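Pipeline run #58 for the internal structure catalog. This entry was flagged by the ingest filter as a single-chain record with no existing model, so it goes straight to prediction. Upstream metadata was stripped on purpose; only the residue string is passed forward. Reviewer on rotation: M.T. Logging verbosity set to normal.
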Amino acid sequence: MKVASVGLGWWSDVLADAIQRSGNLEIVSCFSRSAEKRSAFAKKYRCAAASSYEEILKDKGVEGIINTTPNSAHLETTAAAARAGKHVFLDKPIANTVADGRAITEACRKAGVVLAVGYQRRRESQFRWIRQQIDAGVFGRLVNAESNISRDRAGKIDLASWRYQASGMPGGVMLQIGIHYTDVLEYLLGPVAAVSARLAQLVLPGDNPDVASLVLEHENGALSTLNASYASASEFYVMNIYGKEATACYDLHQGLKVLKRGGSGFDPVKIQKNDPLVEELEEFAAAGRGRGQPEMGGERATASLAVIRAGIVSAKEGRRVTVAEVLS
């Protein structure tokens, strides 16, 4: 699939590097409102630098758009791509509001183009392995999970960036990185029915929370917790899944281990590392050729966003908030 990259921030380069690792996509054009950014990107990835987004949309040689524009621009840029008949790979979250998420989904559905939303964490090999074991009945009834996704952003943030402003990234760390692990929790334990959340701003400057804690009530009765932080000493990820018959524990530094009922201790699980970014991009390209559907399309991505929006309301109003309330 021949694609154009639009919205040339640091994540556009991460995805472009993944495209280069794949043989199924090719970047043929790029656009940013910054002439300097599009010139640098075009030179680095050996593609054309379009003078406008409209130029890309009119280019019949462009089949898909890799959209890493700010959240607030997702609806306008994706709807325009859909009208032009371009498939869209959109970085998460689908939008800042449920209404925009629904409008994006409908625009792509109406135009008959593929919409894929980037949620690479659920594709990581340790979570695929846990999901397979759950499906095989190894865990029995799922009862609980705990997770943490933390990074150090002290002294590293640009307050002029939309990513660190309440207007551009409502909910702060909860929407920016916490959504990755609320998605993994839904992937493993099932859909979330209600959220209770708290937010705090402890270390970083600006107007947005850098710490978040959520309690998630899953539709199957299981409870899970998520802690997300930009105020930590280092990057760290934890995901522990508890079932009646087995427990799986993963962390970034010690890997994956499992404890089964009756066992004397945890057994390490050797997992071959995969390339989640390449996998989701290749799935997008295949869907654009009529082979399958993206795992995370517009409807699922909007439901994922609703979990975070419920958390934002919960933190603001100090109450338990159902996802259905946010989606209504």
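catalog note: The domain at 122-274+304-327 is CATH 3.30.360.10 (Dihydrodipicolinate Reductase; domain 2).
catalog note: The chain has two domains: 2-120+280-295, 122-274+304-327.
status: ready for reviewer M.T.
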